[in-house]
Amino acid sequence: MKVWLLLGLLLVQEALEDVTGQHPPKNKRPKETGENRIKPANKKVKPKIPKTKDRDSADSQPKTQSIMMQMMDKGRFQKPAATLSLTAGQTLELRCKGNKIGWSYPAYLDTFKDSRLSVKQNERYGQLTLVNSTAADTGEFSCWGQLCNGYICRKDEAKTGSTYIFFTEKGELFVPSPSYFDVVYLNPDRQAVVPCRVTVLSAKVTLHREFPAKEIPANGTDIVYDMKRGFVYLQPHSDHQGVVYCKAEAGGKSQISVKYQLLYAEVPSGPPSTSILASSNKVKSGDDISVLCTVLGEPDVEVEFRWIYPGQKEHSAVWGE
Fold it and tell me: Which of 188, 235, 247, 285 has a CA between 20 and 30 Å from the CA of residue 315?
């Protein structure tokens, strides 16, 4: 009887050890501390593939971010859109982040050294301010960081910003021109531009020939309209010669631009040529002599004449209109 009782107690003890895990199976060894767990060899493991977004971001080059900010009311700043429309008279303030910033703005402001424009460089940003704006200030405003080595600087293409601003003014659909009649030269080897730009983004602009009176279509093949430049003749030829003007319509109002004389130049553009001719090849002492130097080239090019002749120091003079 005692033997059976002892055998029963041993069987109960072994069952308890199996349930609590205190006694490991004979075909397995205890797992040591810090030992990695090995997955069964027959289990399929799905390879981890990097996300497409991660691969693309690693392969692609960093995008250029605009460094330009526009000063708004109450001291707020925001990034300007590619095109802005402001009312003439408003103050424009642009800032570009960087300790050395270059600026570009409508040439009209530089030509007359306009005191309304102020460009300053602060410690961390460049600042452009334009007060009492007018329709004539319409155009592209841009900035860029500069990488300098001593006195030599180059543009940092990764740090730029730009916006084209329309300054709307009552009674002015076109950007004012300094003259009532302008000449546009048509060269066979380059584009020609009739620069009738508008101050209202939504304006409908058409090109017209004065005689015979008709509208010249901007078909996108020979002539295209660029709101930042005007009507562009892509491949000028002699048939385009004549007097033209532009017509703009916006808000139920219409306006005619100044007139443009289109002149075709047979000779492709290039450096000017010179010729020199003396009134006589042989003169006596005391006689007068004249020497004529002629320069042939494109109009509106400043020409400098530098004269060198025996017995005199070098002398120079600037001629041109």
Answer: 285
Residue 85: which CATH number? 2.60.40.10
Q: Which tokens belong to 104? A: 């570009």
- Residue 121 CB neighbours (<10 A): 15
User: Does the N-terminal peptide bond of residue 212 adopt cis geometry, omega within 30 degrees of 0?
Assistant: yes
What mean pLDDT comes out for the span 32-40? Answer: 50
Q: Is the residue at 213 inside a domain? A: yes
Token code pair at residue 51 = 């996300």
Same domain for 228 and 250?
A: yes
Query: Residue 70: inside a domain, yes or no?
Result: yes
Same-domain pairing of 192 and 159:
no
- Residue 278 sits in which domain range? 273-319
Q: What is the pLDDT of residues 176-211, one digit of tens each?
A: 988 888 899 888 888 999 999 999 999 999 999 998
| SS3 state of residue 287 | coil
- 57 — phi, psi (to 5°)? -70, -30
Six token digits for residue 321: 């209109």
> What is the rounded distance in angstroms from the CA atom of residue 91 to the CA atom of residue 129?
7
Q: Are 110 and 116 in contact (CB under 8 A)?
A: no
The domain boundary, picked from 219, 241, 264, lies at 264
Tell whether 164 and 69 lie within a shared domain: yes
Rounded to the nearest 10 degrees, how much is the dihedral formed by the CA atoms of 28, 29, 33, 38? -40
Rama region for 139: left / alpha / beta (φ>0; ψ in -120 to 50; rest):
left
User: Domains in the chain: how many in total?
Assistant: 3
C-beta of residue 268 within 8 angstroms of C-beta of residue 277: no
**Could you give the count of Cα atoms lying within 13 Å of 69 in the half-sphere of its Cβ?**
13
The closest of 109, 102, 115, 174 to 143, measured between CA atoms, is 102
Whether the full predicted model's pTM is greater than 0.70, yes or no, is: no
